[in-house]
Amino acid sequence: MKQQDKLLVTYCEILLTSTIITSLVVAFLIVEKEVLLGVIIGLGILGFFIAKSRGIPHKIDQVYREHPWFFYLTILLPMIIAIVFCRHEHFALFMIASVAIYATACLGLTLQLGYAGLTNFAGASFLGVGGYTVAVLTNQSIPNVLVILLAGLMAAIIGSLLILPVLRTRGHYAALVTIAFALLFKTFLEINDTLGGPQGLKITSFKIFGLDFNEPFLGGSFYLSYVVAALLLMVGVFVITRLIEKSWLGLHLDAVRLDETVASCFGINIAAWKILAFTLGNFFIGLAGGLYAQMLGHIAPTNFTFGDSLILISIVILGGIGNPLGVIPAAFLIIVLPEKLQFIQEYRFLLFAILVILVLVYRPEGLLKRGLRSFYRNWGREKA
User: Fold this and answer.
1) Does residue 356 register a pLDDT over 60?
2) What CATH fold (topology level) applies to the domain 90-362?
3) Taking phi first (over 0 means left), then psi (-120 to 50 degrees means alpha), and beta for anything else, what does residue 200 get?
């Protein structure tokens, strides 16, 4: 078989796999009967083993490296189709938007943990900084788009203050600094009456160019507008994260993560690169928190607990540390799966925990392992 024919067969297999995954995801989001949910989960597990036996994951990885445009196309088109099918389903659209927002926040954590090696257990706190910034500023005569950007900026500013003690510690001690900040942040919100105290704050509707996000959008649910905004934000942050990884910025961050002593011997300013990763990562998390608060319409300290920070870290680890693409399926599993398994009551957390443990035991590198660094082909080469 010729090389072109093999490539065509590979394309067809990947398109078929993407179609099947999209169908299962849409069915999983819409179906409410317990028996059907069990059947869908069973079909998903069976399909995974069949795809693995046919070498589909390896083919997908090969296409992702050699033809990334086709890979991203097979993700975007089914995603659009899934949104069209679910355009009248409030719960399904809310889950899709939540997954996109959490994935955006986890891209910020990937920049910190996966690239620079900074463990941040206060991710939910920076989500809260962005959310409360939006809650306070929406009552002012400031455009809502600018308010979202200010939410990210405020999270970056507060993160720049937290980085000072983080730079003076290493390893587990640096992680303890972020844990302490997460606990202090929630306590601060609960005792601060200006920010609503334990009851929180109500947020007015999100408007862009006269479009009210709390009104039906394109004949569907009002959550559809939030889904579009969340996906655009996620795609934008994903592109920036990938560009950083592929550039000399990512190379410097990798050097800092792997060995600080060797990196400093080669003239790399360790503190400067840690500050960059921590600040930029928190900026992304703040953006996600601002949009999340707008979608909820009301925020309280209970929305940004230390447990939520652990969920964000779990998404990064489960998806594959340092792989921006892995946070998307991991966010779907961790956010959507417990919600859809509510019919088994508290046992859903036991089943969910067992699933996560099995994935980490049999695939410790995560769902999508970060591959070896590969720069773009033409970078660093002179044109003939």
Assistant:
1) yes
2) ABC transporter involved in vitamin B12 uptake, BtuC (1.10.3470)
3) left
